[in-house]
């Protein structure tokens, strides 16, 4: 570490460093804002620190995964502390005052909830469950409710509402994204902080340390439970999650942002909206893989829909939609364009609509 950094906190899995202002933060869009550096360690603890160990490469995986998830959430309108990835293990974040309330969101019964309510692990929950825990090492992070939060003055009612809303929104976004990676988001823990201006912002990390992730097909656990329960293959599980998420992340970056809170999401491009009033005829061409050809993107979407409960969905084909502005509506020429360039007739089907 350079001398200009001051350690402000060392936790079980991370070190927080203060860096002196003014900082050079090109490309973050948040020049001059107070910032911390988070260093992710390989150290692992469980059961309130009673079990300790090392998961080699965990710091790198958790840092890189958290960055991908924070970027995705920001694009979808959930504010986070993430500013920039500095190295494999280090992330630049906004300086926040951490709210000492951990928010756990659950879609499927597992861990402490399964025990507390006497449910078999893996039982889907009819409604998403949100829980609050008091972030206190001395007390062992006890489960608390809104009244406790109020009595202890840990957060205002408005702040707690905001945290719950953002946590549920994060659950939707992450659940969808992870389903595309063949992972079920069973449950996860979030932490929030306040900016100097009093805004509630998502903080901490999002990783296999803080999420339960089960393989959609095999049900295999690809998260910290492998360490907690001595299941073996811990490092491999963390690497597998990073590998799958990285593969999918390139696609998420191309997605249209869902918009900031309050903003109506923009209408998706549709055949109708693609008709600009230029007065010239248009051809709308639809290209999909032939039903005899394997469509991995379609299969991923189908898996994701089924994970979300849309079990009625059968085969899914993902394709291209192309709009051509023409001088005249000549179906033969459009058909030729499709065969020669727009579609590959060996593996793809196409059809087109022409308006005069
Ligand atoms: N969790 C966490 N930090 C904690 C406690 C829980 O990140 O200090 C995460 C955990 O990984 C799981 C979810 O929160 O994804 C719910 O955990 P649970 O209450 O079932 O506790 P556990 O079984 O881990 O004791």
Gross geometry: elongated
Q: Please report which band the strand proportion falls in: under 5%, 5-15%, 15-25%, 25-35%, 35-45% or over 45%.
A: 25-35%
Number of helices: 8
Name the ligand types. uridine-5'-diphosphate
| Integer count of domains | 3
Helix content: 25-40%
Please give the CATH class of the largest domain.
Alpha Beta
Largest sheet: 7 strands, antiparallel
CATH topology of the largest domain: D-amino Acid Aminotransferase, Chain A, domain 1
Describe the structure.
The chain is α+β, with helices and mostly antiparallel strands and 356 residues long. It has 3 domains: 2-94, Phosphorylase Kinase, domain 1, CATH 3.30.200; 97-255, ATP-grasp fold, B domain (D-amino Acid Aminotransferase, Chain A, domain 1, 2-Layer Sandwich); 271-355, Mth169, Chain: A, CATH 3.30.1280. Helices cover 29% and strands 28% of the residues. The chain has 8 helices and 17 strands. It has helices at 58-75, 111-117, 146-152, 157-179, 225-228, 234-254, 296-307, 331-342, and strands at residues 6-10, 14-18, 35-40, 43-46, 51-54, 82-85, 90-94, 97-98, 101-108, 124-134, 143-144, 183-194, 200-203, 211-215, 282-289, 320-325, 348-355. Strands 8, 9, 10, 11, 12, 13 and 14 form a 7-stranded antiparallel sheet that branches. It has a 5-stranded antiparallel sheet with strand order 1-2-3-7-6. Strands 16-15-17 form a 3-stranded antiparallel sheet, covered by helices on one side. Strand 10 and strand 11 (143-144) form a beta hairpin. Helix 1 packs parallel to helix 6 and helix 4 runs antiparallel to helix 7 (296-307). It is elongated and about 75 Å long. It starts with 5 loop residues before the first strand and ends with a strand. The model is unreliable at 258-276 (pLDDT under 50). The protein binds uridine-5'-diphosphate. Uridine-5'-diphosphate binds next to helix 2, strand 12 and strand 14.
